[in-house]
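Table S2 (text version). Query chain:
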Amino acid sequence: MKRLRHLLEAGGLVITLALLRALSPEAASNLGGFICRKIGPRLHASERARRNLRLVMPELSAQRIEEIVVGMWDNLGRVFGEYPHLGRIGDRHSGYIELVDHGPVRDLLARPGAAILCSAHIANWEILPVMAATHGLDMTSIVREPNNPLVRATIDRIRGVAGGGRIPKGEASAKESFKVLRDGRIMALLFDQKLNRGLSIPFFGADAMTTAAPAQLALRFRCPLVPVRIERTGPARFRVSVQEALTLPDSGDKQRDMVQVTRELNTILEDWIRARPEQWFWLHRRWPDEAYGNTGAKTGA
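Corresponding structure-token output:
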């Protein structure tokens, strides 16, 4: 039965991607956005997004919260619609991406070495590794692989369209990340998800378990830690801003330094999200139930 379900899921995905591939990147993005913004807000999962918004942006009206939830689903649908076009969108000559480089990309190309590019689940996060490869950066990303092995094979082919390495998220990912940086190569990390074994760091004013991996790796290897902001500017169109590398502390207290860097990353992420809240993945379970207190948001959503 499990095998049959896997076959049906993979077959449906292949057919859907083939249909999307027959469209232009813009049309595929628009179709995905249309479908998801009509269905997504009605799903129970959207209650978690509304709950999160009431917690961290209590000044927002109910109407504005609903606009953000609809916009979030629109963006997620566009991410899916753009999947079969990642190679074309990420190509440096395609015109789909505006690259704003504040120095790190030029520095990495001129003086290759270990570095960490960190981004978040904003706009289309699959753009970063594809774009990096087309700009000549040998970058390895940590990715969450689908549970269905047949679906996994299809997704891997799409993600690998422009090159670059991928490490499956899991227990072995830390060891593999160490090897990448030890070899003087570039890592890409998404740092906005909850990690139960992470650090309790303020995020929008409420403590949230936060991954310390970017800070831990950067401090261990004393390599550039570069925030990369991705913004959706239209259907299949993006602005990628490669910001200046963070200044790494060296107080002699490793834990203190790790907390300082992680706090700075959370502050940067807050700024990105406040600027374009509809483009972030608000479905994350980012805050513990006790953080909601008297916000009017029901726990357990």
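Notes on Table S2: The chain has one domain: 2-27+83-280. The longest strand covers residues 194-203.
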